[in-house]
Specification:
The chain is an alpha+beta fold and 260 residues long. The protein has three domains: 1-66, no CATH class; 67-174, no CATH class; 176-258, Translation factors (Elongation Factor Tu (Ef-tu), domain 3, Beta Barrel), CATH 2.40.30.10. Helix content is 42%, strand content 20%. The protein has nine helices and ten strands. A hairpin with a 5-residue loop joins strand 5 and strand 6 (215-225). The longest helix is centred in the middle third of the chain and has 33 residues, at 142-174. The mean pLDDT is 89.
Amino acid sequence: MFLFTYLHEKIRDNHFELSLKLINTITSRESAKYQHLTKEEVLKKLNNCIVNPTKYQINTDAFVLLSGNLKHNKIVELFNKLNLDLNEELLKNEELKNEIGLNQNTISRIEKDILYNKINDLVERRNQIAHGSEEVDDILSISELEPYIQFLEKYCQAIFQTLFEQVIKEESRHTFQKVENVIKIFGNKVLAFELENYTIKVGDMLIIQAKEGRFYKKPILTIQLDNTEYPELIVTEKTKIAASVDYKIKDNHTFYIVKK
């Protein structure tokens, strides 16, 4: 169970302030964008976050309040409300870096907003067309549009991966516990470690924190004790077991198992 209080303080504070702004926007009817909402619904969710943190819903619309045209710097600003430095996180994504054509020597020399100029260019083109500008004389051909589509696919995938990893990171802090005694890693697939007062079974999740700070969550495929496989083990005293996952694990990784 992930409690509302587990969220970072910055996210909780922003949720409160932005929910109040959302209520004001709904009340004044400044935008047709929020006609599907009522101030009562927003207040109910906000109240539950405070008085019932085990069963709550976030006012997600509040975090994109009148967001306007989403150029890259605006997207970064939105994610900053979630206590997330999107520029820094995106540069950890190898597929996106390859798409942009970056390496470690060029990253520090380039203004980050310039890296994503395809998004900004599309926004400008959209604005010109939407506002009926007569200056749109360089309409992209199909072949010219394809690199934009390919870039946007990698960009959106990288953002999704960043968010997914942030969820896993928070789980590692609040609903998982660190494996304190790692004994050895075999074949980059099998983790040997020590357990005590714990019930572990095939299918339980293992969180893996890589050296560069990225997080992954993988199911345990097999469990072994004294070279014998078990679907489930109930451990009462300190016991050395081995668990395999479908991921290349390394000695410099940190591991977490579900709190029980």
